[in-house]
Amino acid sequence: MLRALTRALRLPRPWRPLQTRSCASDGAAGDPEIQVRVLAGPDQGITEILMNRPSARNALGNVLVSELLEALARLREDQQVRVLLFRSGVKGVFCAGADLKEREQMSEAEVGIFVQRLRGLMNEIAAFPAPTIAAMDGFALGGGLELALACDLRVAASSAVMGLIETTRGLLPGAGGTQRLPRCLGVALAKELIFTGRRLSGAQAQALGLVNHTVPQNEEGNAAYHRARALAQEILPQAPIAVRLGKVAIDRGMDVDIASGMAIEGICYAQA
């Protein structure tokens, strides 16, 4: 068992650094819906994924999901990425959730495939080897909140509005929300929020422990982004391998009994 765990916990091999660029999937026409930005200077080591689909409030459609998966596949092998920050290029919104208008045009089989891709996307974010931070400067509803829940840390502006609202539309959170929200808030409170479809402000979310920090919104509408970047800057000076292995020890240890969790911690400690 310990040998299997050791193999599973090995860090990825170094890869060449990724340059700032946009992503487009499958030859999609028009402007890319996400951009990857590699910061420099005092922010060197921070990479940003900028969601920019203003016509649909960053809703998770086929193109946006494909571009996010493409970017994550490239970034996860880049040891130069010390912190990955998710932010929005659309003022007043982080991510409005799944694109229901697009989904209406799908067959039942296509909907099933798309939901599986959404789950795969959230799992890729959760399994990203470096720390991830969601900067929530506006609405984060349904799949948008599920995306933030897949990140390690969350920062919200006071003007942010978030919730798993699927039950208000005859749906169920389908991208991991029913699993990640209870781990964040506890079972009873997660059930209450999902059953009621309640929307929370940034301050309410922090009071419940749903986000790490809440900050007053500024005129530019990017206060959460600035606080998230400051949080990332606190991580940058720390030993990168120790940080990555700390993430592995916590994430893997939460899924097993205490004895197995201690064994995972021991393996990570030895590698560090």
From TrEMBL:
InterPro entries named among the record's database cross-references: ClpP/crotonase-like_dom_sf, Enoyl-CoA_hyd/isom_CS, Enoyl-CoA_hydra/iso, Enoyl-CoA_hydra_C
**Where does the record place a coiled coil?**
none
UniProt xrefs under Pfam families: ECH_1 (PF00378)
Q: State the superkingdom.
A: Eukaryota
Keywords in alphabetical order: Lyase
Q: Per the similarity annotation, which family is this?
A: Belongs to the enoyl-CoA hydratase/isomerase family.
Tell me what this protein is called. Enoyl-CoA hydratase domain containing 2
**Organism, as annotated:** Felis catus (Cat)
* Record gene name: ECHDC2
